[in-house]
Every structure is written in C-alpha cells, then in structure tokens.
Amino acid sequence: MTKRMFKYSIIATSLMIAIPSIAEQTTDETYLITARHWSEDRLDVPASTQTIQIQGHKGDLLELEKQASNTKVEQSSVQTRVAIRGNSAFDTSLQQPVGYYLNDVALPLGGTQVPILFATEDLQLIKGPQGDLYGRHSEAGVVKINTLSPDWQPTANIEVWSGVTDGANDYQPSNIVVGRLSNEIIADVLAGSVAIRAEDTTGPQLNLVNDSKDGGAIENLASQFNFDIRTSADTSIHWTSYLSRVEAGKAKMRYITGANKTDRFTTNYNTDTFDDIDSDIHSLKVETELDNLTVTSITGYTDFNREFLADLDLTPAPIPATEFAQQDQMLSQEFRLSTLPQQNMSWLVGLYLYQQESDIDFDIGGSMMMPRTYRLTNIDQTGLAGFTQLDWSITNSWSLTLGLRAEYIEKKAKQQIVSSTSYQERLSQTKWLPKASLSYKVASNRNLYLTYSEGYLPGGFNYASAQSLNSFSYDPEASQNIEIGGKMRALNNKLYLDAALFYTKTKDKQINDLLPGFVQTISNAAQTSSYGLEVSARYQLTTHLNLFTNLGALNTNADEYLTNSFNGSAFVANDLAGNDLPLAPRFTYSLGVDYSPSKGWFANLQAAGRSKFYFDANNQLEHPASVTVDASVGYKFNHVTLALVADNVFDEVIYSRAVNTAAGIVVEDSQPRYIGLNLAANW
Fold this sequence. Notes:
By secondary structure, the chain is mostly beta strands. It contains two helices and 41 strands.
C-alpha cells in the first residue's frame, strides 16, 4: 500500500467516525437497495453502490459518468462502454469487464447491447467484482436496470419532449414521445403494462459533401410488455419483454488535424452511412417463498442484430466503405436459493447456465494498395457458473461476508477470410473467484467495511483483424481488488455520506497490439494498477430541497505495457510502463441542487466535471478538462407537468472518442447543447 493510499484510508475512516450523528430514524425507501437481490439498507452493503436517475429524453448510460465518481462512458458510434475505476475493454471487444443486467437478464455484449432506456424503475451501479451474486462475470462492477412493474389499478401516463440540438447545421429538431398503460387484467391474479417510446432526432451533424443533416440522426421505436402473475400467496411470476428498433446515422467522426480537418459536428463523407440495431430482451422470473427461503428462477433470451455501413477514411476519396453485420442470440437460465434477511445469518447459492451464438460478417474497406478484407466469424459458447455468498453477524457490531464463484466456459470459433483461408479454435476456461468482506457497525447509522475480491474477464477471439490462427485468440485477464469504505447517516437522517478507498491490480490485461506484416492482434501483455478515493453525499436541506455531490480521485498506472508499432521503416517495441490508462480522469466530480415539491414550481441544476484524460494507452490523445451543466425548471399541476430542459447549457466541447491515424487525429463530437420542453400527464 502506497503512502498516498494510506493517507486516503485515514481520511475516509476518520470522516466516518468523527462526524457526529443524531439518533437514527426509521429507514426511508430512499436508502433501500437490492444490490444483493433482497431489499436492504444501503448502509449494510459492503460495496460502493449508487442509484442513478435516468432522464427520460436521454435514455442512455451517459448519466453514469454525470452521477457517479471515477466512472467514464464512451457513448460513440463505434461502441458503448463504461470504464469503472480505469478498467475498460479494448476496442472491438465482444465482452466488457462491467456486467449489465436488464430485468435480471445478463446482456452478453456489454454496454453496446443496453437499449435506450425508458419507463425504468431504477438503475443501480455496484462497483467491484460481483461474481458471487450475479450469473455472468463482472470484473469491474455491475449495472443493474429494472423496468417499471405493472400497477394493480388503472394508470396511464404520457410524456412528450420537443426540443432542438445545437450543432453545425444550426438548431435541428428532436421529438420524443413515451406512453404507458397499466392495469389489473384478472382480479388479484394478473396485472399488465405496455410502454412505448418513439424518437425522431435529426442530430447536430452536417456532411459537407452533400449537405446531409442525418449523420447523427436517430429514429427509434421501442416497447415494453410487463406481466405480473400471482399464482398463490407464496409464488409470483414476472414476464418482461423489451423490443427496440434503432435506425441511426453513422457520419459522426471527423479529423481535427491534417489536411482533412473540419469544424465541430462537421463531416466530409462520400458514403451514405447507417447504423441499424434491433434488440429483443425477454425475462421470465419465478419466485417462490418456502418458509424462510426464497427460490428464484430466471429464464432469459436475448436477440441482438446490428448492421452498419461506415466511411472509414472519413473523406470524399473513392475508397470502399466498411460493412458490418452481427447476429447474436443467447439463452440463459439462472437459479437462486436464498434465505430471507435474518438477524444473524443470511446466505445465497446460485447456478447460471447459458448458450450463446454469434455470427459476424466484417468487410473492412480498402483500396488498390490495400485490398478489402472480408471476414466471416462464427462463435459458439456455453457457460456454467456456481456462486454463493454467506453473510454472518458475528456480534452486534461485527459481520463477515464470504463469497465464491466457480465458472467454466467453452468457446468454439471459426473464421474464414474470403478468397484466402479459414481456421478454427476451441478455448476452455475454468476460474475460481473468492470474495470476503468484514464490516463493523460503529453505530446504528454508521458502518465501516473492508472487502477483498477477485475478478476476471474471459478470453475470446479477434473477429475484427485476425489473419491466421496465431492472431485469432487471446487469454483471460484477472484482477485483485481491495476496498475500504464507510457509510453513514447523520443530522436527523438528512445527510447520507458514502466514502470508499480502493486498489485494483490487473494481470494479463487484454490489449490491442501490432505484429510484423501489419497484423493487428489482441495480446495479454499488460499489467496495470489503480487506486483512489470516492465520496458521495446527499443532504436534505428542507422537505423538498436536496443538495448532492460526488467526488472521485483516481490514479491509474501501466505497470507493464508492451506494444509494437511501425516507425516507417521497421517494427519497434514500445514500453508504455508508467502511462495512465485510457478513459481514466484523475479527478471527477458532480454537484447539484434539486427542488421538487409535490405541486408548484420545481427546478434542478447539476454540474459534472472531470480532469484531463487520455483516449489511448500511448497517452498521446488527450481530452482536456471539461465541465457540463444541465438544468430544468417547470411547474407541477395536479396531473400535468410542464418543464423547460437544457443539457450542456454552456455548450462545452466534448469528445466521446479519439483515434490517431496516419492522416491526422480523428474525434467524435458528443453531448451537443439541447434545449427543449417536456410535457407530462399522469392519470
């Protein structure tokens, strides 16, 4: 442990013990969380957890980096990925270190498979490995999303957002409509709901070649169908289906240096690009109470289809476009047996099985000097995991949590390079992942904990750039994690404070590399470490006025990091040891004020900032420090709400992605200023 880390530890521990508190009040629902599959006080969870509010007109994961410390989101036309505490996946990876769940069903393709969110009950972020509680692997943390359950009485609501985005083509329209109906269908037996979201957004992009304004357009139609069935007093069945269809523009990336550079949100493509995604996610959850036990069965099915056409050179040059088509289906089954929360001991055991098949057609654009490369890849994988957690209250103050995950994965893949060659390979991996937490309840409203956990990210296949069997596969990566944290409520239950100090060591890190012959491969040639401090606070100043802040300090380091590059005449080795990891700002913060009475005027103001960070392991592509401000003000009537909403009020320049090429630096502009009206009605 470094001196700086020790200093953080003293500060965090002292803060939890020293701040005085007034007698504990009855736990409010505001502080309840289901990170461990049962509803419990946030104070009792020995992990860094947070509930994220999703804004209806956004519906994406960008809210994570605006409301959670040491979290960075790449929401780009290439992919969606969340980096937690500096841990992220390499480009083109089919799996990510963060586990994503929608209605308890794992999304195997990570953040890219998370659909546009609406009618959500909550989104919970749990940092650190959670493999002893969740079916799929989760090296860096879990993003858990639940949609609204059906109401057992007639309810209806509709929301309309009508606004404009500010970009290269001046102000362009964005219109979103969300409607939801719910009711009891069979008295005391069956309730159902249906929700629909439709979006038509032009976007801020302008393409100079043909004056096209649809490079950042989004046309989305999504629906949710939820049913709750009460078969008996002890058994309930929950069925949810989420269907989403997205047609989007893919002319977003541009040069900011070199002969082809353009202004913000301005592109120069000769190809009419598109990015279409169809995603279906189905969940069947059955829960049965047996004395003091809960038996849970979750059957999941996901169907994800993506097809895009991209102008990879980003210029009017007559270079063939890149084509991509992906089909992925997964069938999963999870069983959990757990005790109801008890005073002295609670436990959970689970079994998770899945079968997944992916077909990927990838045709990289080329030229006379570099012919097109057309790859057909099929990946079949099956997995079996057992997991368990035991929570034991040793005394009134001390409690011990022990967890273990055992996982076996088998993957078979075949790749054919059209008009060239084909090869196939089989990977099998077995992993045991322990976890242990020791908690000390200083008082009824203050809790300290120490957690050790191990996580891993499975190996896989290089579908995008392999040229032979030697460059086709890569091995798993593994991490060790230590977290010291404290949680407290004070000042008559009006102040909630959560602080954590963490350290992560990752071995055999999966990274992009280049081999002689210009073969891009995925290697396990990196060892990394990260440590830092997180503080989250929320204070209820009055009944309707809340103040909140999230602060994060993060230091990441490439302890060992070897890659190859071409210097114009030969391949040379690059030692990147000592560099910062990508997508890892050293400081992140958010703060805001929320005034929300039941009727009358309301307002919300939030600022989110981060220090500079790098997009690449070479630390050559730097994003400067930035701050975005979002605000809303409106009036609540009996059943109708009208609000003025503004995102990125001061039009801060934000890039979601940056890449270094021979022709210059390429970026993708993100988070344009948005101004709109929101009308909501509820019955």
